[in-house]
Write a structure and sequence with these properties.
Low-confidence stretches: none
Distance between the termini: 40 Å
Helix content: 40-55%
Strand content: 15-25%
Largest sheet: 4 strands, parallel
Radius of gyration: 26 Å
CATH topology of the largest domain: Rossmann fold
Number of helices: 16
Mean pLDDT: 94
Length: 447
RNA sequence: GGUCCGGUGGCAGAGUGGUGAUGCAGAGGACUGCAAAUCCUCGAAUGCCGGUUCGAUUCCGGCCCGGACCUCCA
């Protein structure tokens, strides 16, 4: 097995991955805040870390992949206030939608999926530890993390405290001792979700939940922490501060991975800019695997641009893979080929891995059954070729009307009535059905 | 202003101190009644200026351009 190397945001370089416990690799990824449907940009980390989890499972005997659900958050509260729908209904529905959408992109569920509301006591516990050790203080019903108490603050994001102050664009709350201090716990009025705490009824700040949940499900120190590049500051910086101060002597996460943003017309896709497509909208434009391909054909740390043309290209690439395995059935024994494995182990070089898949598809197309098997194994490690050629090309809908039309056309061709034959073909194409006359007869696929 | 990441053929996108992958699109050909698919062939790129080097797209410096973060954000 090749050596796995990953770019660590903490050191800004590619490092050989050495797990804390080779018998059990642990990874945490920041999951969604469940207040609305996920957009394609939200799906990028899910797909990227899904590939990483699949790869880790192949390299190590046991992997625990944890991804949280944030179900207590001011945006959820705002949504409930605006729509009148109960918070619990919003979070339950959005969580189910999220699971369905990510499943449609071929992402396997994480091994554990902690919910913030299930770990409030863990958060309170961490806040108490931080107060006890002088890293946090209670003020005005809030509990704040004292940033000056942590010397390494800013290490991940490359920021120093002077920058913080110079760049501060928000009013500093009066109860903060330092402008950079952030909220661990805040008071909650009766109409909003709240839990009893030593500081009165309240709810958690944003950053504390990931520290609490990762600690609970993975332990004080674990191997990999992933998330979007836009979370580096302040979210991950704050997580590091909280966790390292709450659990002295621990390492928290050893390798930090950050995926680049999904852009649209050169700009980051985001809810606040309004320039987003939900995963559902995009699933109406292309199959899930094509969307997955679009998210994996660029390196995970680079920005990628979303476009319908790009999506169409991805579908064509997958067409060829499916055609190759259809034309030459896979030999019985298959290993993930070294070309794919090596590419993925080199900081998840999915574009290179995909090009390796193309080489295998060429060989499979030429009749190499072993190449077909290797193509299948390599593609499936990346979450491709999860369907069968028949379903990929034709779907599951009733197609008897197509068969009827094809029979008519065959009769016309036999009579050398090509005008009639071409008319039938054009008619079907107008309905999205493309005919192919091969040596073995006429077949069809969705255009 | 600060921090960080990029600029490769028409588009997408890798690798590499020594004649620049891969996919899509395009051109020509084979096959086909015509298409589609497949196969063969072809054209086409490393932002600018310096430096190091026998040699730089790759390393270093400067510049220009783009983007992200510094505020909720995957």
């Amino acid at each position: 097995m090749p050596e796995l190397r990953l770019h660590n945001s903490l050191t800004r370089r590619r490092e050989v991955f050495v797990p804390i416990d080779p018998g059990h690799v642990r990874m945490y990824v920041c999951g969604p805040t469940v207040y609305d449907l996920a957009h394609v940009g939200n799906a990028r980390p899910v797909v990227v870390y899904d590939v990483l989890a699949r790869l880790l499972r192949r390299l190590y005997p046991r992997v625990t992949y944890a991804r949280n659900i944030t179900d207590v958050d001011d945006k959820i509260n705002a949504r409930a206030t605006a729509s009148g729908e109960p918070i619990a209904a919003i979070t339950a529905r959005t969580t189910a939608d999220y699971h369905a959408d990510m499943g449609a992109l071929g992402a396997l569920p994480p091994d554990v999926e902690p919910r913030a509301t299930g770990h409030i006591s863990d958060m309170i516990d961490i806040a108490q530890r931080l107060i006890a050790s002088g890293h946090a203080y209670a003020a005005d019903g809030h509990v704040l993390f004292a940033v000056p108490s942590f010397n390494d603050y800013g290490k991940l994001s490359g920021r120093n405290r002077d920058d913080q102050i110079a760049g501060a664009r928000i009013d500093v709350a009066p109860y903060k001792r330092d402008a950079a201090d952030f909220v661990l716990w805040k008071p909650s009025p009766a109409e909003l979700p709240g839990w009893d705490s030593p500081w009165g009824r309240g709810r958690p700040g944003w950053h504390i939940e990931c520290s609490a949940m990762s600690h609970r499900v993975l332990g004080e120190s674990f191997d990999i922490h992933g998330g979007g590049a836009d979370l580096i500051f302040p979210h991950h910086e704050n997580e590091i501060a909280q966790s390292l101060c709450a659990f002295p002597g621990s390492q928290f996460a050893r390798y930090w991975l950050h995926n680049g943003m999904l852009n649209i017309n050169g700009e980051k896709m985001s809810k606040s800019l309004g320039n987003f497509f939900t995963v559902r909208q995009v699933l109406a434009m292309a199959p899930g695997e094509a969307i997955r391909m679009m998210l994996l054909r660029g390196h995970y740390r680079a920005p990628i641009d979303f476009s319908e043309n790009g999506l169409a290209d991805c579908r064509k690439e997958l067409d060829r893979f499916y055609r190759a395995v259809e034309r030459t059935p896979a030999a019985p024994s298959a290993e993930v080929p070294a070309s794919v494995m090596d590419a993925l182990c080199d900081d998840l070089n999915t574009p290179l891995a995909i090009s390796a898949l193309h080489a295998l598809a060429d060989a499979a197309m030429a009749g190499d059954a072993q190449a077909s098997a290797d193509l299948q194994a390599g593609a499936q490690l990346m979450g491709f070729l999860q369907s069968t050629p028949a379903v990929w090309f034709q779907g599951n809908d009733d197609s008897s009307w197509i068969d009827t039309a094809i029979a008519d056309r065959i009769a016309a061709r036999k009579a050398r009535d090509f005008a009639r034959a071409d008319a039938i073909r054009a008619e079907l194409l107008a309905k999205g059905i493309l005919l192919e006359d091969g040596a073995g007869g006429t077949t069809w696929r969705k255009a």
